[in-house]
Amino acid sequence: MVMSIHHPPWKQWRRLSSAPSWALKTEVGKQGGEPSSPRGPGVACFVLRRRLTRASLSLCPRLPSPQPAFPPAAATTALSPHPSRSMRALAHAASLLRRATACTPQVGAGGRDVPLLAKIFPNVYCSRYSTLSAPANEVLIPPELLSSKAVWTPDRELGQYEDLVARVTNFHSEDKGFMVLDGDVFDVPIRKDIVHRVVRWQLAKRQQGTHSTKTISEVSGTGRKPYKQKGTGRARHGTLRGCQFRGGATMHGPKPRSHAHKLPKKVRRLGLKIALSARTAEGKLCIFEDLEVPSHKTKNIVQYIKQMDDTKKVLLVDGGDIDKKLKLATQNLHYVNVIPSVGLNVYSILQHDTLVMTRDAVNRIVERMHTPINR
Asked: What CA dihedral angle connects 357, 345, 307 and 282, to 10 degrees?
């Protein structure tokens, strides 16, 4: 390797490592010539290859690069001061080095090149776009690594107002027949904006609003002027009950008020329909014949909940009054709540991942949704 600017031999290697690529004039494969690098031709070739490939990454495709090797024929590259000629010469030199260091692929059936991984892994090899392919008689993923749980995928488009048929059961998983769910209540399009408005309305309406602070007329203290108006060098004050003094009043503080705001009845009703439709579409709506339990023991409810698949928090909805045994059995469980159908709301449905309703509760909810709105 010959430098374009000559230096003493002990400075050529340092110059090689610090000079830019356009200042190099290389002569690869010179017959009978001594390499300018004191570390040998292999190191000089590696430095040259590293400098050439940095500028030609976007021009040449990436190929696997084992130990570098020189091409059999000599290749001479001179970089001219013109930028276009220099880039073309640089790209040509880089392509020669890449061809020399690339592995020769095998030619398979059909005249196509077999990738390098095909020789290492004949059963599973890597094709284009990082896609794993496998022969037809073998599986790509072993069956023991796959989950046996079936993934539920809807076979129809949701939100079409279609009547649905649901299976009716009980806590003992006994078959109690089927029930038709009205499509205009349990199959409406999902709208997150409506649910958001209803939830904000519920949380604002249940806020107590009992916060209160004292004004300057309510705080205790004297009304005497603390000191004379002038002559003290201090700021003028007329009372010690002001907001700038310790124990004084609070300016523009909160007073007891109601945080509730109005929301149209149609929007409230639509929010409840959307919440019920979302649980139905997720497969998290269970229809029970009744919510009867043999005793008031909590262990019975715990055993029933464990039988449900992928259930963390359950909301039990009964048509009328809550059974006393059921109320006693669930009052110590923070993940099980029981409410009547008249108290069913959007926020309670969203807080529980599983909704369990009785036949009577479903009928009452549908009747409530179909009742005309009084104006």
From this structure: 90
